[in-house]
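Intended use. Records such as the Pyridoxal phosphate homeostasis protein entry shown here are meant for training and evaluating sequence-to-structure methods. They are not intended to support clinical decisions.
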Amino acid sequence: MDSIAANIETIREQIHAACIEAGRDPAGVRLIAVSKTHPASLIKEAFDAGHIVFGESYVQEFLEKCEDPLLAQLGIEWHFIGHLQSNKIRSIIGKVSLIHGIDKLSTAEELSKRALRNNLQVDYLLEVNTSGEASKYGMSPEELLSLAESLFTLPNITLRGLMTIASPDRVLAQQEFRLLRTLLDALKPISPDPSKLTELSMGMSGDFREAIHEGATMIRVGTAIFGWR
Ligand SMILES: *Cc1c(COP(=O)(O)O)cnc(C)c1O
């Protein structure tokens, strides 16, 4: 495998190329390095190469890493990208800049409650199941639209956008990314502050080019940076 620094550089070039193809400004796409299952030493290596935003999927693993002496003082911007159960919220709140995987009203309510109690403002994304696959987490598009008004009233949390994991097939994936963008556009008129509702977290190692074409503002890339898990 190439060095992590070289992998990140390659991905940056690919992001740039995809943005040019799509007529977009490359500054509008943030790369989240997905470090789940990889050791703190590799995260440190990526950080030393200039990368500061990392995504983790498992609560226990995330907590161990963010407290690891190698990483704790670096000022890493952590994103929680995994499925989040209500009972785990209190252990990560205040430690992550963005939570990508909220997929139930009850989880958002718990997040709001904990944010209020801790006097925090918390940014989050809702996960949408755009492929309709039963094995995937996420709200259905219909659920999202019917719950949106209730979600917008919850105090101390701000919905910043939507997240999805697409089908392995790239043609389907592109359609699913487009659906996510359409859903974000549908939420804007009912949002109390549409200027904050800007994020589309979509695209992984195998499909971030398609996601950028459809408007991704955050791509979550693991394997192409850190190698196989
Ligand atoms: C693991 C994971 C990724 C990264 O996937 P790769 O194919 O390794 O790039 C992205 N998003 C989520 C939610 C993940 O769990």
